[in-house]
Amino acid sequence: xxxxxxxxxxxxxxxxxxxxxxxxxxxxxxxxxxxxxxxxxxxxxxxxxxxxxxxxxxxxxxxxxxxxxxxxxxxxxxxxxxxxxxxxxxxxxxxxxxxxxxxxxxxxxxxxxxxxxxxxxxxxxxxxxxxxxxxxxxxxxxxxxxxxxxxxxxxxxxxxxxxxxxxxxxxxxxxxxxxxxxxxxxxxxxxxxxxxxxxxxxxxxxxxxxxxxxxxxxxxxxxxxxxxxxxxxxxxxxxxxxxxxxxxxxxxxxxxxxxxxxxxxxxxxxxxxxxxxxxxxxxxxxxxxxxxxxxxxxxxxxxxxxxxxxxxxxxxxxxxxxxxxxxxxxxx
Length: 332
Ligand SMILES: [Zn+2]
Hints:
Elements: E1 12-17, E2 29-30, H1 34-46, H2 58-71, E3 77-81, E4 100-101, H3 104-113, E5 117-121, H4 130-139, E6 142-147, H5 149-152, H6 162-171, E7 175-178, H7 199-203, E8 208-211, H8 225-234, E9 238-241, E10 266-267, H9 279-283, H10 289-296, H11 301-312, H12 317-325
Parallel strand pairs: 1-3, 3-5, 5-6, 6-7, 7-8, 8-9, 9-10
Antiparallel strand pairs: 2-4
The structure holds zinc ion.
Zinc ion binds at residues 15, 17, 243, 271.
């Protein structure tokens, strides 16, 4: 049950989403309307699956397809992320909000079954059982805790959550927090996308990874990249992932992440199944047309995402860094 894979040197994509409709019996649901339904259909198609799968055995097919992609990529493993439900700050679940729920049990089970998967659990710190659930997930092999503060309604600087962050710090369990705007999942409170909200967990000693390095997702979102970079100077326990940054909307600061003061804090994540489109890397003159064509043609999106970043100048250290930050159970 323990991951032998604690070994450093493992190449890890630390930001990959599990998607579930409950077909595996582990719970979980997906509820798509309007633009989100169109986008989900597009994502499913690029996995080589038919959109009808959204109503079929989505859990099984998705996990199997992902496993094949990991095995035929440069990666040894991916962190497979659960997705918590929206809660009010008093701990009440808001079943009326949110577009999906991927339970912790599903990713914990998949990680037990396949060494290619590492469990990224998701817990709203306002839950009355938040610390109990955290302890249970750590016991069962969680390597990090993921949340989307603006979509799940989590003000990470709310003092009521301090004991939860302190427990995470004791466990050495990193927090992967979405930062910056979001367009694939509905936003509940846009102000919570600000990386400055992560000060409290950072001060509690939690290793925090700001997903997307706090970059903007759409033309009208605030851009928090400069806030994140100044916080990197202040907090040695703050990192950033470059997930979803080979895209039409979020690539603006990707080359900026190569700056010498930032690059030791960068981790590779793809944000799979978010589409990987390198067109703007070429249009900006960051890569030549030959490389753009060659890489965009790669059918494996995990590999395509990494190869674009490699062509920009990222080194394998961004693939291996996660292995030294994630919480691996001690191998006895
Ligand atoms: Zn994501």
